[in-house]
Amino acid sequence: IPEIEMPGHALAAMQAYPELGCSGGPYDAAQTWGVFDEVFCAGKDHTFDFLQGVLDEVIEIFPSTYIHIGGDECPKAEWKKCPHCQKRIKDNNLKDEHELQSYFIQRIEKYLNSKGRQIIGWDEILEGGLAPNATVMSWRGDAGGIAAANEGHDVIMTPNSYGLYLDHKQGQDRNREPLSIGGYSTMEIIYRADPVPQKLEESKRKHIKGVQGNVWTEYIETPNKVEFTILPRVLAISEIAWTNPALKNWKEFSEKRAAHELAKIDRTSTRYRVPEVYGLKDTVIYASEYVVRGLKPSVEGAKIYYTLDDYDPSELDLEFTGQVKITVPDGKERVFKAVVITPSGRKSNYVRAQIINTKK
Ligand code: ACM
Ligand code: ZN
Q1: Angle 351-212-255 (CA atoms, 0-180°, nearest 5)?
Q2: Ligand 1, atom nearest to 214 Cα
Q3: Which of 4, 6, 122, 166 for a ligand 1 pocket mutation test, highest count of atoms within 8 Å of Cβ?
Q4: 235-264: per-residue pLDDT in tens?
């Protein structure tokens, strides 16, 4: 399904065709990530003629019933100042610029419906009145998805709050991760999400059609990094999309099935992020003695190595086989760090347990 973004996030089109903007430009295509005030003019009929021409070409290329028309992150500042947009509001008895956005989306929907196609839009298309046949993609949390389903619209769940933004970093410590937009999403966060909100009344749940993971690439410049970004989290997306929630079991999924899939990927040249060792999270413990046990590798056939001196462990260090007893002298501390090293030699981030003996 193609997405042709409108009326915001379209500076590149506006640089090429400045008459599509309220002021007539000139405009520069965005050079950085951002939400920009310059958007398609909703007052000029020319904007709609142009977009219908684009959509005619898209329809020819893509046989999908659905065409995504964006609709997200459209600031209203330019529309407030634009005589064309203000005239449109007046002529159509619209209340404000939010209803003008709704007018924009509904006009495009009507056109696509006339061609036998259906629209999908981000949850902002709820603002100012939802287009009659639209399917909503809920991304700013699940509230938009719930509201749309309650109005009888179909919904695709892709909330950032469910971990479905795969451009978010995969570990809490940014210093251990490649550059990313920020946020935080792991295979476990996604696995524990249920795309059908329990808050949603039973009779409306049929409107939740499925889930989507988003791979926005502002901070992803190479195909290798796309693979690293998708894997292993896409395994969890498959599970929440197609597994009955009653059958979900994080321990069994992570330690057995995902570990088995990752071992298969490990035998290829495909990039993936090796999940941290299971059974321990970064922690600080106040004790004179601590026993680390129950650690499991995140990839089948991988080994766990550890250090006790706060150095980043490698295959040159001690192998974890069962348990490690750490004794901390009075007034001292010890730092246990463990990594997973896969059969192909790929390494996870470390997990760190700091054990402090406060006795004088
Ligand atoms: C979005 O992430 N702006 C849909
Ligand atoms: Zn305008």
Answers
A1: 35
A2: 2
A3: 122
A4: 999 999 999 999 999 999 999 999 999 999
